[in-house]
Amino acid sequence: MTSNNTNIRFEGVQDYTCKFNGADRKLSTRTHRKVVFDELAALCFPTDFIEIMFGTNTFFLLSITFISIIYRFKYELLYFWLKWQAKIRKDLSTQEVYEFDGFVAYCEADYTWVRHELLENLEFHSQSAEKFKLCFHHRNFLPGARGTFL
Questions:
Q1: Domain for residue 107, yes or no?
Q2: Does 147 map to a domain?
Q3: Domain assignment of residue 58, yes or no
Q4: What residues pair up with 18 in beta bridges, in sequence order?
C-alpha cells in the first residue's frame, strides 16, 4: 500500500478477499480508498448481526421502560384493577346493610367525653337528617365475647 499526503491507494486490491461466513468474495479492481472501504463494508460487514442487535436492544429498552413504569405506579394500577373488578362483579340489586355506621376507638382517659359528648352529639343531636349509629364497645360488645365478633 502506498500513500501520499492526500490519497491512499491500495496496490494489489484484486488479491483482497472477504471470508465472512465462509464465503470467499473478491473485491473489484478499483484502487481508490473510499471505493475499497465502501465495498469492504458491503461485502464483509455482518448486517444481519446489526439488525438482530438493534432489534434485541430495542426490545430490552422498551421492556425495561414498561417494567419501570409498572413498578413506579404499581399501587395505582392495582387500585384501578381492583376497582374495575369490583365494578364488574357488583350486583346493584344486593346492597349490603351494616348494623353500625362507624366504630368509636378512644383512650380510656377520654371515656367521659366520648360517652357524654361525642356519642350524644353524633347519635342524638346531629344536624344532618340521618342520625349516626355508632359501635361503642362498652355498650355493644357482649361480655366474655371476643371484641372482633358482634
A1: yes
A2: no
A3: yes
A4: 25
pTM over 0.90: no
Give the H/E segment covering residue 60.
helix 47-72
Does any domain span residue 25? yes
Q: Do the strands 102-103 and 134-135 form a parallel or antiparallel pair, or are they unpaired?
A: parallel
For the chain, how many structural domains are there in total?
3
> Each residue of 88-139: pLDDT tens digit?
776 554 567 778 888 899 998 999 999 988 888 888 876 766 778 888 888 8
In a shared domain, residues 111 and 131? yes
Q: What is the per-residue pLDDT across 6-39, written as a single tens digit (0 to 9) for each?
A: 555 556 656 666 665 555 555 555 545 566 666 6
Domain of 61 in residue numbering reads as 48-89
What pLDDT sits at residue 113?
93
C-alpha cell read off for 91:
350486583
User: How far apart, in whole angstroms, are the C-alpha atoms of residue 114 and residue 22?
Assistant: 90
C-beta separation of 141 from 147 below 8 A:
yes
Contacts of 134 (CB under 8 A, 6+ apart): 100, 101, 102, 103, 104, 119, 122, 123
